[in-house]
Amino acid sequence: MRRAFILTAAFWLACAGSAGAAFNNNDAGTSAAQFLKLGADARAAGMGQAARALCEDANAVYWNPAGLAALSYRHATITHAAYYQSTFYDFLAYAQPIDSILGRNRRELQTNQLGAVGVGVLYLNSGQLQEVDNTGAATGERFTPQDFAAMVAWGGALTRDIDAGVGVKYVSSRIKDVASTGAVDFGVRLREFPGGMPYTAALSLHNLGGRMKFQQQSDPLPLQLAVSQSLRPTRNISLSMDVVAPRDNRVYPAFGAEFRSAVGPNLSAAVRVGYEGRTMSSDLSSLSGLGLGAGLGVARFSLDYAWMPYGLLGDAHRFTLSYRF
Question: What average pLDDT is seen over the chain?
Answer without folding.
Answer: 86
